[in-house]
Amino acid sequence: MLSSLSIQNYALIDELSIDFSSGLSIITGETGAGKSILLGALGLVLGNRADSTTLKDMSKKCIVETQLLIKDYGLKTFFEEVDLDYEDHTIIRREILPSGKSRAFVNDTPVTLSVLSELRSKLIDIHSQHQTLQLSDNDFQLEVIDALAKNQTRVHQYKIELKKYNTLQSELSSLVNKQREANQQYDYNLHLYEELNAANIEADEQEALEEKLDKVNNVEEIKASLAEALQITSNEDIGVQNLLYILEQKLTKIAGYSKEYRELSDRISSVKIELDDIVSELEHANEAVDFDPYEAEQLNDRLQLLYSLQKKHYVNSNIELIRILEELSEKVAQVEGGEEIILAKEQEIQKIQQHIDRIAKEISDARKKELPKLISTLESLLGDLGMQHARFSIEVEMSNEYFANGKDRLSFLFSANKGGSFGALKKVASGGELSRIMLAIKKVLSEHTKLPTIIFDEIDTGVSGEISNKMAHIMQQMSRQMQVITITHLPQIAAKGSQHYKVFKEEVNGTTTTRLKQLSSDERIVEIAEMLSGKNISDSAITHAKELLN
C-alpha cells in the first residue's frame, strides 16, 4: 500500500509531504485546486514520461518520492528478476533535472522506466475518467474474466509460448525467402560450383606450375649452361674438380708439419667434398633436362585454366578461388538441403502450436465456466447501484487466430433498460452508467487480484444522491481488502472515508502554491458542509454533514 508521498518543485507544488493509511482515504478540493497535480506527481514517480516543463522553479530539480508497504504481496521474485534489492518498505524516487533528463530509483538502485512501469502494474491501479473507456476494450474485458477464472498463470504461459511461436514463424519466413532466392540462382551456382570443383584447384599449385613452365620454355639455355658447368668442374686437364684434387694432395703432404697446414688441408678437403656433391647434382640435373613439347602444352593449358577462372570470379589467387568454391558449395547445399530444413522448422512450429492450442483451450474453458458467475455478480452490484434492469450478454468463442491473451473472440454486450436490446457498452451506456459499471468491475477485480492500492479519480462522475451512497459503500467493502484512495466531489462519498485529505491553493509571497493536508474531525465536518452548500455554510449543512459522517 501507499504509505507516504513527498513532492518537491513540481507544477504548483513547492514542497509537500503526506502520509496515507490503509482503508478508504478521501481527497477533496475545489476544481482547479490541484488534485490532478497530485495524480500527475504520483504517475511521474511510477514511470510516466516527463520533461522540464513540470518544474515549478526551472533552476532546481524536481523530486517525487513515495514509500510503499509491500510485505504481503509476493513481490520478492519480481525484485530478484529485475535485480533489485527487496525491502518490505520500498522507496521509489524520481528526479527531473532542469535539463529535462530524469532518473528513477527503487531502494536507491537506478532503474529504467520500463522496470518502473512494470512494478507500478503490481502496486497501484490509478483509475482516471479516461480509463472508463477501457470498458469497451476486449483486452480489458478479458482481463476481468481471467481474474475470476484464475487464468493468470495460463495466460502468462500462453504468452511465453506465443512468443516462441512468433519467433519460429519469423525464422521460417526467413528460410523460405532465402530458399526462394537460392532456387532462383541454383542452376547458375551449380554450374559455377561444378566448374570449380572439376578443376581440382590446390592452394599453392599456380606458383609451382609457373616455375615448371619457365624451365620447360628455357630448356636449351638450361641444358647448355649445365653442360658448360660440368666442363668447368670435371674436365680432366683444367676442371676445377681435378685441380682441387691436386691442391688437396699438395697440402696433405705438409699437413703434418704444423697445425696451420693441417687446418688448411682439412678445409680444402671439405671444399672438395662439397664440390664433388655439386658435380653429382649437376650431372643429375643435366640428365633430367629434356624438352617435351606435350608437357609444355599441358602446363600452359593448366595455367590458362587457372587464369581464366580467376578472371571470371574477379580474384587473383587460387586461395580465393577455393573460398568461392566453398561458398558455392554452401549455396548449392542450401537449396538441396533447404527443403529438409524448412520441413524440420515446420514440424517444430507444429509441435509448439499444439502446445499453444492446448493452453488456449484451457484458458477458454476456464473463461466460459466463470461467465455466469461474472454476469450474476455484475448485475447484482449494478442493481445495488440503481441499475436494476442492467443486463449483460457475455460470450467467448475460440477462433483460429492467436491473440495476445488467447484465441478467444469476446462478445461483451450490455443493456441498461428493461426489454432493451443489447449493444456495445460505449454505445448504449451513459457516462454515469459507465462509472457505475467500472466501479462494479473494479470491485470484482479487487476480490480476485492481489493489488495493494487502487486510486479512483472522480469515478462518481454523473451520479448523485442515494447512488453515491451505494458507490461509497462498495468502496468501503473494497477497502477491507486493499487500500482505496478516492478523489471525489460528492459529500456522500467523502463522508465514508477512514481519513480525509483536502487539496487547496494558497498564495505565498505572491506565488500560488498547491497544498494538501489531512483533515481533523471538525475540519471534515466543515469540508463536507461546504461540499453540500458552498462557501456560505448553513447550519443545516453542518447538521447534514454530521449526519453523513455518523
UniProtKB/TrEMBL annotation:
All copies of domain RecF/RecN/SMC N-terminal, residue ranges: 2-507
Keyword Glycosyltransferase carried by entry: no
Coiled-coil stretches noted in the UniProt entry, renumbered to this chain: 165-267, 342-369
Domain of life according to the entry: Bacteria
Keywords assigned: ATP-binding, Coiled coil, DNA damage, DNA repair, Nucleotide-binding
SUPFAM superfamilies for this protein: P-loop containing nucleoside triphosphate hydrolases
One Pfam entry name: SMC_N
Entry-linked CDD domains: ABC_RecN
Function comment: May be involved in recombinational repair of damaged DNA.
Family: Belongs to the RecN family.
Identification of the protein by name: DNA repair protein RecN
Organism field: Asprobacillus argus
Gene that this polypeptide is encoded by: recN
